[in-house]
Amino acid sequence: MEKHLLRITVNDRDYELFINPKTLLVEVIRDHLGLTGTKRGCESSSCGCCTVIVEGMAVKSCSVLAMQVDGMTVTTSEGLEKNGKLDAIQKAFLDNGSYQCGFCTSGMLMSSKALLDENPSPSVMDIREGIDGNLCRCTGYNSIVRAVAAVARGDYREDKQ
Amino acid sequence: MSVKCPVCGKAAKSGTAIDCARHMFGTGDKAHRAWFESQGLSYIDLLLSQTTEPGNKAYVTVAELIEKAQKD
Amino acid sequence: MKCNVINTPVHNVDGIAKVTGRATYTFDVTVPGMLFGKILRSPHPHARIKNIDASAALALNGVRAVVTGKDTLGIKQGIWRRYKELCDEQILPLEKVRYIGEPVAAVAADTEEIAEQALDLIEVDYEVLPAVYDPMEAIKKEAPEIHEGFERNINVTRHIEWGDVDDAFDEADYIREDWFRCSGQAHACMETRCAVASYTADGKLAVWTSTQSAYYHQVLLADVLGLKESDVRVIAKYVGGGFGGKFELDAAQFCSSVLSMKLCKPVKIVFTREEDFIASKRRTPMYYYVRTGVKKDGTFLAREARVFTDGGAYTGMGATALYLTGFFHSFPYKWRGYRHDGFRVYTNTLPSTSMRGFGTPHATYCSELQIDLIAKELGLDRIEIRRKNGHTPNYEVPGQATIASCGLEQCLDEIEKWIKSRGELPPNRGIGISSYGFMSGGIFNRFDTPYSFSSAVVTINYDGKVDLHVGAQDIGQGSNTTLAIICAEDLGVRLEDIRVHSGDTAECPPDLGAWGSRQTLMAGNAVKMAAGEAKRQLLEFAAAQMSPNIVYDLDIKDRWVHLAGRPERGLDYFEVVKKALRGKDGQRIMGRGYYTPHRKGMISPAYSYGVQALEIDVDPETGKIKLLNCVTAHDCGQPINPLGLTGQLEGAISMAAGYGFLEDIPIEDGMVMNPNLVDYKLIRAPDMPETEVIEIETYEPEGPFGAKEAGEGLTNPTAAALATAVLDAVGVPIKELPITPEKVLNALKEKKAQ
Ligand code: FES
Ligand code: FES
Ligand SMILES: [Zn+2]
What we know:
The structure holds three protein chains of three kinds. By secondary structure, chain A is an alpha+beta fold. Chain A contains five helices and five strands; from the N terminus they run E-E-H-E-E-E-H-H-H-H. Chain A has two domains: about 5-80, Roll (Ubiquitin-like (UB roll)), CATH 3.10.20.30; about 90-160, DNA polymerase, domain 1, CATH 1.10.150.120. In chain A, strands 2-1-5-3-4 form a five-stranded mixed beta sheet, with helices on both faces. The longest helix of chain A has 14 residues, at about 105-120. The radius of gyration of chain A is 16 Å and the shape is globular. Chain A starts with a strand and ends in an 8-residue tail after the last helix. Helices cover about 30% and strands about 25% of the residues of chain C. The structure holds FE2/S2 (inorganic) cluster (2 copies) and zinc ion. One FE2/S2 (inorganic) cluster sits at the interface of chains A and C. One FE2/S2 (inorganic) cluster (FES) binds near residues 41, 46, 47, 48 and 60 of chain A.
């Protein structure tokens, strides 16, 4: 099959790849770029383990072709940390014990981050609905909800630290 | 007269055959099971009917047999 | 006792790796030159394999090997290694397949796509046999035989009895009989089963896999592959969930190993979600019959129960469920006479195995719902009837177990208070309650390990930092953190001074791993012993310097080595370590610890207790249930890691509530009808109730620092509390799990008709 050129920025780094046009975004991220923080938990776009942020929006990377995001900017869990500093949502996950096995965590972080970027002061129900697409078999979600609420409350604002 | 278990000789407090049947099912060890088979019954089938259907059909069947055995 | 590290909120030791996407799971492992494997699965529930022709598959470009049962040693394996007749599963069977989805062949190819294509080219000639899918059918005389030599397809039976049951029933004023049915449940770990096997020409095999016990898999693989245990290395650094589903040998591990041994190349196999649903294992479905006799005043006298469990096609670990459901169906109450008969029956469906709670959520559901029905019938208060009959400290379950610590009564008090605080409830709202208890690690050694059940090694390095090697397995429940806390507390250092090594049989001591809620207690005790030994070595040296009367007068707390009676007199821990190493000719300070329960009753060295209340709304129009609040009073001894404990509790609620009203594995003609995450419903974030935990602290003499089980037992009450909540809200008992809207509506209709 003829390969296509994909230009993509992932975690602030520019990539040029020749790929089979049927390649999924998640495959590019994991298999071509080796960024294995993004996981896969299903074949039916229903677990959210593969969630990444594309141009500010949470996207299930198993549900889009890589070519659909040609020229766009993608952030994965590996890209949340900036200059050796954890993002507020990562700190909040640590403080609230919002992960257990950690397999859903990357996706949860990205959904939470996108939710907060879009709605900085969500209600508890907003938060629950914001992560509705992400399954977690371990935590029962409430610790994740508390983490997002803590960030929304401003517990992790720079001036507070 | 109180009915005794044809296998181990235990008598229920009430002395009734139905309680004796209950005892035989509940004990359910090899010796007790063998008695059911010796009467041409299947322990498992009786147990199944007793545990899946309301009423005490299996117990009644067995109680009758115990009484009969007692008389003989 | 005053603790510095224990019971303070800390970040998990693997937290940074997990929130930055750096934690590498088996799913993420790549090895240079790695091939990809796929498994061909049986489309028939029961069939004889007459012939397998793989020539067309082998001819496909990129296919490297195809293996079938003929390429294996044909060893029948199982996890109860002590009981040969219960080792009944060949992962690539030679003669028969017994469920839809059972592996029949495996392919290794250059890419996953090629391997997938190759599967279609393998021709299997089957002779289809009659099949049976339900234990109540499989036990009948005319049912087809699934395994040779098992009369009526009965795989295992189990009888538990104490007291004079018949006498106790004689004294009862009220006797009640009920029938219940409990569904299966999928573990649905977010990381599906997977393995990378790499066999090299020196005869050594390395397997990365998602497991609950690296040691188990080392032994099981060595057994079936004909290798020495020490030539098999199992690596499982991060595991994407387990819940009881990941310690039997699975097809990913076995087939990748067989392929790798044939090719001397690394092979990776990852189950698709569908494969994980249809051909990994599941929670055991059960039919329950319960007969209970009580006095007018609510005193429990006798209980007699019979359970028929759906074992599926093989034994595996599943037989233990029979014993645990039998024992815990008595829990946490005192019975004068108790009798439980269990029958595990083979069927042509996917095998049943352990799953969090392991037979106990079923037992608790049937018991608690019936107790509420009895209380209703006799006009008694539901808390009172539980209080009257509950276990108390130092109670002995006749001939079965001795309870040391037990905080059940305080738990009941707390829950009673909470329920009162809710006041009058609106219509169609109800609060359900359920008491529960669980073990802290089983004492049985059916696996037949010659090693101690848990072991640990503590090494203190020159800079005072500590390496802790444990065989315990962290599957997300946070055992590495819990064990590091115990180590830090005992040594008198800080959590950040400890580095935990786990999940690799080449560097860690053997340990039975993560199951039966055993790690906090068993591995915890091993760690405590190892740390104590290292500390003793250090203090011996310090004693020579500080000359107290005896060594035991010295202690370490928060990196300060001091006289126990006069804490202000002391030395810096780091300095002492440096000097001690030099003083001992550079010998490393190293302590070893191990733990095997001896003479600890029949089941477990210690028991956790609790009571849960669940508030719900029932919509009488649709039958739908909405979970509102869930409050749990929980006695887990001394909590070690409070954040971890909350996580365990909430996670358990989500899984157990799911079992109560959403999750089910319907099987039609042997086929799982919902093998994907769309049709198989898991709880999602909006479905979760608000949760609250009330910690009842007791001190468990058998546990490290007084701790006991804190994660698995929490799965036991929620389905029961859901059922009793529905009873409270709309007055109908639903005796079949899961409590679907349909069942609620039918029950309401029936009630109206009466
Ligand atoms: S992998 Fe499950 S939603 Fe993408
Ligand atoms: S932490 Fe395990 S699935 Fe979410
Ligand atoms: Zn007898």
